[in-house]
Write the structure tokens for this entry.
Amino acid sequence: MSEVTTTLNMHQIEARATEKTTFGFWVYLMTDCVLFAGLFSVYAVLHGNTFGGPSGHDLFKLPYVLVETMVLLTSSFTCGMAMLAAQRRDRTQVLAWLGVTFLLGLTFLGMELSEFHNMVLDGNSWRRSGFLSSYFTLVGTHGLHITFGLLWMAVTCVFMIKKGLTESVLKRLTLLSLFWHFLDVIWIFIFTIVYLFGSRGI
Amino acid sequence: MFASLLGKLSWSQLPQDAITRGGAGSIVAGVFAIVVLITLLGRWKWLWKEWLTTQDPKKIGVMYIIVAVVMLLRGAGDALLMRTQQATAAGASGGILDSYHFQQIVSAHGTIMIFFVAMGLMFGLINLVLPLQIGARDVAFPFLNATSFWLFFAGMALVNLSLVIGDFSAAGWLSYPPLSELKYSPTVGVDYWIWALQIAGVGSMLSGINFLVTIIKMRAPGMTFMKMPMFAWSVMASMTLVAFAFPILTVTLALLALDRTLGMHFFTAGSGGNAMMYVNLIWAWGHPEVYILVLPAFGIYSEIVATFARKKLFGYTSMVWAIWAIVVLSFTVWLHHFFTMGAGADVNAFFGIMTGVIAIPTGVKIFNWLFTMYRGRISFKSPMLWFMGFVVVFTIGGVMGVLMSVPAIDYQVHNSLFLVAHFHMMIVGGVVFGYFAGLTYWFPKIFGFRLHEGLGKLAFWFWIGGFLLAFMPLYILGLMGATRRLDHYDASLGWQPLFIVAGIGALCVGVGIGFQLLQLIVSIWQRDQRRDLTGDPWGGRTLEWSVPSPAPVYNFTTTPVITDRDQFWVDKQSGKKPVKQYEDVLLPKNSGASVFIAGFAFMFGFGMVWHIYWLSVLALLALVTTIIVRASNDEPEYILTAKEVEKMDHALSRRKEQYV
């Protein structure tokens, strides 16, 4: 029996770990997709159940939501710019682009909350009807995801400032940008199914 | 002021009646006894370092199984109470329980048995065996794996806390609205149910992702998909279902919680809610859940039959296809749980046909197992007995299931004990027997010694005899019109003798469980005579038997290279001994963060149950902070050098000589 010892190739191990994590994150995104699919189908069932209250047609202000949408889409673009800068290992640019992304995300969130706030002030809260319960929950869950994404972005920036663009920071940036684009896709569906269809009274 | 800080919590929430006090008392006394024992033995540090903070899937698997076994005892206790109630509560006699209490026990029994026994045994066995089977040293995300376990633990703790403070849901194990809405269930029972399952469910979902990635990305070199052991295939299928089904559970529970806490109207009877939507949603998760539980059990049977018949598994390829056919079909049958909803003839016909169709791949598997046994040299060890018991019980239960897949027949037996008998035959006969078989089979690999065969066989015979005695009468009672969750009935119906027979059956199962506990105690007592020194006590076929028992922390000294199905069997036949190489091994460091995350999740859930919102907010903040602190750790792993591996390996060999 011959006994041979070998040592670890850390670089290879790290590369494999990144591959594993990215794949795992994709699977997570798919589970999140199912979660939203559940909320969308609930909305589809309940969107007509206004129980004498206002419908989407009465409530939604399309121009406002269009601005909201453009803000979020732009944030996806700037997030992509941050990733390109990350590939060039340009930390200052990454931070700058992520900063813009963060502000745009915050603006989106603020606009959403203000829309919610006005509806509640008008007496159209989630308690009003099955339709409004499902509306607030679907859109609000997306908003919660955005909130989580913003927190994640802030933490990653702090890590980046403290540690530099290390392998682990780069890995997290990749996942974060996947997450951010994913939320964009979900929003497109919300914009179409909730707002466009809703304001047309479909 | 102080009162509002505590939400709905007050002294009056402590148990008031004798039976609940007994249950609560035994939980408190049990926890207290464990704490005292550990303190007296001075084992806290050891427990924390060796077990609670571990990220070794083998140890995590053991912890899952310990929790599941303890919960099995509680669930079985609930079952005995229900059987006693139904055996005695005829006519003038009210039985031993009041109606509300009986409904709580029914709900707790179902919830605990599915979520904390069956799921616990499943994830336990997967943790123990899967990495070894595919030639991996770990799972894909060890930290996530530990966190999943602790979230499972937190959910379990919440369910059991409900016995001590407050009450538990009395709305059945799936808490259908509008009964489970605040208006009709104003106490905290349903909230306990929601948050316990929500927390444990998130853990399960993370586990699903984890094992899926493990199987897809971490198989040993050369192990193509079609060379994987059947258990690995079944886990892959089951975890795919977890990834697709559990988010639906998360949504459903969240919506019910929103109804109850924020006054929303998803499932309320008025204001535009739709209670039937809940039933659709919960079964869109719930039906796949049945297959999530049973597929790994199928995988275990496949391993056991091949090993104990000393033949390769018959029809490997058709087994794989059957598994994936079940995965797809399991999402097309959920409506058969509520044919009586009145969705119309077309919809019912579609789901009825799909339900019948799903019996085909299952039948393929049964025949494959039987053909594996055919002309094999079968040794009737206790895992094999569990398998053969499974074939009998599962086939009876399966045929009854196909019978009920016909909507017209389902209308007759809907919500009756006929259905209760059917699904117990599937879940106990299919799932639990499989996990018992797997536990007996893999026990030596994990602990290094075999379980006592004689007591194991005795336990099996009490189990299967008692099980048939307990559930065959329920088929008859169901056809006679006895509905489920029945706490009292008229004596003139003539049901009591059959209920008494069922009660005797449940007692026999209880004796079986007693023998299992005795088997464990005797085996630990005699462990030195029962050592498995070969690492291959049954004549196994797959990689886990190629390493010493108990499996060392690094699993394999050298990453195995695969050329065949049943690689280890092929190597044994050809007399090939792999060249022993030692290599550096990267292993996860211990981390207490998982325990803290789950602890905060528990506090969050407790706050939500009792409307102590400041506690929930604080717990959530603490949870997020823990995750961030954990994320800032860039070195979660350590290197076990080749020298150390060599030393440990030699120590294992020396220990072997010492016993020989």
